[in-house]
């Protein structure tokens, strides 16, 4: 039995190493090229050294600017939120700006106004960022297809981290180095270097900056 287990372990390790090697040599470059072409077709500006894992969803009727050294994960390239793709929708007159070194994973970002994800910020798997209510508050206005809900700009970062499966709503500003705990619903702005979490998100504690 021990010999069988050792053989199985060796096979699993060999398979894992082969997969990692092929992923680096084939899958990541192809995904990145595909992502660049797809973004270009939708009129997006993409900076240098983009790294893409999997295929994204994109609809750009406004402005999309992706800075250098951005990493995008879509689908099962990240098991967290792996049942969904990284999706971005920009309505007419709307804009999404993604700063240098940001990392986004299996999130949905929808802008009818403005969403700015500043340099070095991370979006965990399965996050939703909406700068619009989509539909009006008044029931009679919702019957009018020309009426839209309220839209307000969103700013995240720099160097902020939004935990997996969080929801960021219109008008929110998440300050520098702030952290949003997983599964939170953020309805108000978060000051720099604070940890917030919950539904709705509330202050938990300050973040002490430690220099190494």
Supply database-style keywords.
UDP N-Acetylglucosamine Acyltransferase, domain 1, 212 residues, six-stranded parallel sheet, eight-stranded mixed sheet, 20 strands, alpha/beta
Tally of strands: 20
Overall number of domains: 1
Kindly identify the CATH topology.
Answer: UDP N-Acetylglucosamine Acyltransferase, domain 1
Strand order of the largest sheet: 2-5-8-11-14-17-19-20
Q: Calculate Rg over CA atoms.
A: 20 Å
Note the run of SSEs as H and E: HEEEEEEEEEEEEHEEEEEEEE
What is the CATH first-level class name? Answer: Mainly Beta
The number of helical elements comes to: 2
Which CATH architecture would you pick? 3 Solenoid
Give me the secondary-structure category.
alpha/beta
Average residue pLDDT: 86
Distance between the termini: 48 Å
Major sheet: size, sense and barrel closure? 8 strands, mixed
CATH superfamily: Hexapeptide repeat proteins
Fraction of residues in helices? 10-25%
User: Beta-strand percentage?
Assistant: 25-35%
Cα shape: globular
Query: Any low-confidence stretches, pLDDT <50, length ≥5?
Result: 14-23
